[in-house]
Amino acid sequence: MEKPIAHFWEHRMADLKEVLEANHFEVFLAEDALDASRVVQEKIIPRTGAKSVSWGGSMTFIATGLYDALKGDPHMEVLDTFDKSLTPEESLALRRKSLLVDLFITGTNAVTETGELVNLDMYGNRVAAITFGPKHVIVLVGRNKVVPDLESAMERIKGYAAPVNAMRLDKKTPCVKTGWCEECNSPDRICNSWTITQKSYPKGRIKVVLINEEAGL
Ligand code: SF4
């Protein structure tokens, strides 16, 4: 068989799609990051009728190329919270405004095979937007984010995603020096707000794009 790993994940993602749909998420399958971009731009966005868009920290979002594609979209009001030219105050103000857009795009730290999205945030704007505010939410999920259950989701996040993200963001936290979470009390701590999104409410508000390749942290 050619591409046995992709074949394996096709089965696992088809099963995951069913479980997530039973939890009222709308679910799309994508072969890779490029395909995920196509799915979002051709299948999801036109149906939402979104006139404004924003996003929360997600390496997967960057990997799909959607950030570059959407930030120049003349038909959208774009609230670019990644804009490095903003002052900290401006950036915070934009994060607040981004909770009222038509469409919010982000990733997830983990998705369980029992159908929950699990996230841990520094500011909380990303988990806030997933929970309430934007009319539509798109969550982009690489296959490396799939874990069996809530316990393994939390292990994945504290044991891997959070320390690597702290390193990526040049935070002054113990995990940056050691690679291990030490449940720090640092002002730079990035682990502040947990969410478990057990179901989408209203049904279909959260659209999950399952990507059959590794993406994000
Ligand atoms: S709690 Fe602190 S040490 Fe642990 S992963 Fe988060 S930032 Fe790093």
Overview of this structure, please?
The chain is α/β, with parallel strands linked by helices and 217 residues long. The strands form two sheets. The protein has a six-stranded parallel beta sheet, sandwiched between helices. A four-stranded mixed beta sheet has the order 8-5-6-9, sandwiched between helices. It starts with a helix and ends in a 6-residue tail after the last strand. The structure holds iron/sulfur cluster. The site of iron/sulfur cluster has 15 residues, from helix 7 and helix 8.
Task: Supply the key terms.
217 residues; alpha/beta; 4-stranded mixed β-sheet; 8 helices; binds iron/sulfur cluster
Q: Per CATH, what is the topology?
A: Rossmann fold
- Please describe the biggest sheet, giving its number of strands, its sense, and whether it closes into a barrel: 6 strands, parallel
> Percent helix among the residues?
40-55%
Question: CATH homologous superfamily name?
Answer: NagB/RpiA/CoA transferase-like
User: SSE string, helix = H, strand = E?
Assistant: HEHEHHEHEEEHEEHHEE
The CATH class is Alpha Beta
Helix run count:
8
Shape: globular
Based on CA atoms alone, the radius of gyration comes out at: 17 Å
Bound molecules: iron/sulfur cluster
Strand order of the largest sheet: 1-10-7-4-2-3
Uncertain runs are: none
Classification by helices and strands: alpha/beta
How much of the sequence is in beta strands? 15-25%
Instruction: Summarize model confidence as the mean pLDDT.
Output: 97
Number of strands: 10
CATH architecture annotation name: 3-Layer(aba) Sandwich
Distance between the termini: 29 Å
Count of the domains: 1
